[in-house]
Amino acid sequence: MASVRSPTVREGIHCGSPALPYGRASDTKANGYCIESLPDREIASCSGACYHPNFHMPAVAHSITSERVHEQFANAGRVLVLTGAGVSAESGVPTFRGGGNTAVWKGVPFEVISSARMLERDLPAVWEWFNYRRELLAALKPNPAHEAISRWQDKFSELTLVTQNIDGLHQAAGSRHVIELHGNIWRARCFDCGARHDVRELMFDQGVPSCFDCGGHLRPDVVLFGEMLPAGAFERAAAAAQQCDLCFVVGTSAVVYPAASIPEIARSAGAYVVEVNPERTPLSDLCHEVITGNAGEILPLLCQKPDR
Ligand SMILES: NC(=O)c1ccc[n+]([C@@H]2O[C@H](COP(=O)([O-])OP(=O)(O)OC[C@H]3O[C@@H](n4cnc5c(N)ncnc54)[C@H](O)[C@@H]3O)[C@@H](O)[C@H]2O)c1
Ligand SMILES: [Zn+2]
Question: Which residue's CA is the nearest one to ligand 1's atom 16?
Fold first, then answer.
């Protein structure tokens, strides 16, 4: 099976995994890429290069749900939902690009401490950083957006949920078979035997944890900068995108690849594509509809009849 490289950024500042809640901008080159992360990136040649030219048309923008989207929602059989950090924003998880700054933790840029190279260089520091983030996330609960998507499992003949988030909030809301493109902060895996373990119960002040099976060192089971996506995850998402009638793109800045190509695949294959985001993104022009607003307010409305 073809391997898929780690997330790449088309136009944004940085990519990777959850941000720190409080941070300041790190140094960036004029082209917007972090100096540190540059070697780990595939950089698209131009910000619009990945778009299909035929899709460069303005989408219909609504701040409330349209009759058309309700019609699509009522008649769809196969639905794909791609979520990003924005779907968890109303739970209190900071988005990565919210405010445009990139976090620095103890003087180390976010994408350096969250890199494959750092695993080799300083595994205890990587765990200290992940334990800090696990502790922040531990108290957070799913919001109405996660809950709405979870309810959709029973509504459509097939619902594929693909997330870039590592926070586990979709599963906490009851979503099953979530395709996690970037792993999960509540799991760790063993360097030696490859076993995956639930680390939800692990103390936050523990150093490098040991494998429950073989005693080897564990690492967070998330995709770090410079790493491949989990085997098969993108392929399964892409196959579902080929098949779906309706595709929602929720709370993603759509600059991290290959995740952002999933709605492009759905669109090419004939699906109706709807974006839910308070801001426009590089994918907005590709979508049939852009619903401008917070996911936690918009998604629950889709199950209700439009009042127009
Ligand atoms: N919760 C998490 O696990 C988490 C958090 C931050 C970043 N990340 C990781 O960082 C990378 C960043 O890419 P990304 O596109 O997911 O996030 P991003 O931070 O780049 O973009 C967040 C997007 O969400 C939108 N948004 C903000 N509030 C929203 C709301 N209430 N409802 C709907 N949309 C809202 C923003 O306008 C923005 O477009 C991903 O690889 C992801 O793995 C994960
Ligand atoms: Zn092991």
Answer: 84
Domain that holds residue 216: 94-139+188-222
- How far is the C-alpha of 124 from the C-alpha of 130, rounded, in Å? 10
pLDDT in tens, 177-236: 999 999 999 999 999 999 999 999 988 888 899 999 999 999 999 999 889 999 999 999
Mutate to test the pocket of ligand 1, among 14, 82, 96 (most ligand atoms within 8 A of CB): 96
pLDDT bracket for residue 62 (50, 70, 90): low
131 & 233 share domain: no
Q: What CA–CA distance (Å, rounded) separates 124 from 308?
A: 57
Shared domain for 102 and 164, answered yes or no, is no
Same domain for 162 and 25: yes
Q: Are residues 164 and 286 in the same domain?
A: yes
Tally of CB atoms within 10 A around 246:
22
Predicted confidence at residue 27, as pLDDT, reads 29
CA-proximal residue: ligand 1, atom 10 (nearest): 17
Entry pTM:
0.81
| CA-closest candidate to residue 15, choices 134, 118, 111 | 111
Residue 14 appears among annotated catalytic residues: no
Do 124 and 19 reside in the same domain of the chain? Answer: no
Verify that 126 and 198 share a domain, yes or no. yes
Nearest ligand for residue 10 CA: 1
Q: Establish whether residue 97 lines the binding site of ligand 1, counting it when its CB lies within 6 angstroms of any ligand atom.
A: yes
Residue nearest to atom 26 of ligand 1 (CA): 86
Q: What whole-number distance in Å separates Cα of residue 45 and Cα of residue 43?
A: 6
